[in-house]
Amino acid sequence: MAAVSACSAGTHPAAGRSPSRAVHGPAAGLRLVPTTPARLIAPAGIPGCSTATAPVPGLTSVPTALESVPGSPFGVVVTADGRWSFVALPGPVSIGVFRIGRSDLPAMVRQVYVDLAGQPLGEALTHDGRYLLAADDTDGALVISVGRAESGQADAQVGILGNGAAGSGAIEVAVSPDDRFAFVSLEDSASIAVYNLQRALAKGFSAADLVGVIPVGIAPVGLAVSPDGRWLYATSELARAAPVSARSQGTLTVIDLRRAETDPAASVVATVDAGCSPVRVITSADGSVIWVTARESDRLLGFSAARLLTDPARSLIASVEVGEAPVGLALVDGGSRIVVADSDRFSASGAAATLGVVDVASALAGRTALLGYLPAGGFPREMALEPDGRTLLVANFSSGQLEAVGVADLP
Predict the structure, then answer these.
(1) Which of 87, 119, 120, 229 is an S-S bond match for 134, by CB 3.0 to 4.6 Å?
(2) What are the CA-CA distances from residue 237 to residues 93, 97, 223, 247, 273 (Å)?
(3) Domain spanning 3-13+33-409: CATH superfamily
């Protein structure tokens, strides 16, 4: 079982909005194009690989602050009541428990040390708020009791989904809307594992929790569930047919979520090119637009959810040049802005890690959309918006910092 240790972290302060254009989302009864990972569609306008970044000014009036944390923070989530944040800390192999809402910066009150073969990476909370799931860097996901972690109990670790049978390289996790199933991207195995979370919690964690795997492209990472719970979107850094050494197009895959729960191998309904090394994906609040960061294209891409199913060759509806090596992304300001974590992961000449701010309406209209850059620590990776919508938390992986951004003050 996991032990809980109390500790603290010092704080180090760092130095007109229009709604998005309406795009109708997918509806029941649409005719689906029968595509698979082997039959890849290339939407018109998909960018190639590039290190060119958009030259825009810094947004100096937006408040940001940085707090040092142990190790290298990866995933970050915030509870629905706005009181707590959980940060995956691969270095000390723990989950950092942060109290939020009492000051400008979250305060770490303890670490939940976990019993893992690998390390905690991407995170997700169940919709009922009872459990935290973290991809465990090997084949599955760690499951933590939120209540026990918040109160400092020693038995916060409930179990681990996976025993090596699904594959390896677990990096991100998503949960079905009813909290019955968990989906884990396996970066080293070109697949997404499907686990029966409800069964594991009721009967004990075992190999029987694995329902099966969804075949996707090479090096899958990002996962996002549509707001209506019908679709699971997944990014893969390379198309399945491409050689691993090639700098070529990665993919965005659309998965029938309900079918994935019973027949994962037959659940893929569409796959399209999504720029070079697409790594994260989110949906708009109404599910009509799917946003993807193409890390080696230095682009934020927007896809029509409806066209991905009915006309994938015309599914790309926005393409915005951002900073170097974009990874994480988050919708803020009621969905009218997107903050992009320009990671500069590979230390490109003349580049720096930043947080790019994109105007959604302008992006969808094909106008200049990048409003400017905010400062970041080293390798900003993943982000979570606090429930009041005023503060965005950013995990800066290589500098060992959690950043708080006052997004209520964005232009």
Answers:
(1) 120
(2) 26, 31, 13, 9, 10
(3) YVTN repeat-like/Quinoprotein amine dehydrogenase (2.130.10.10)
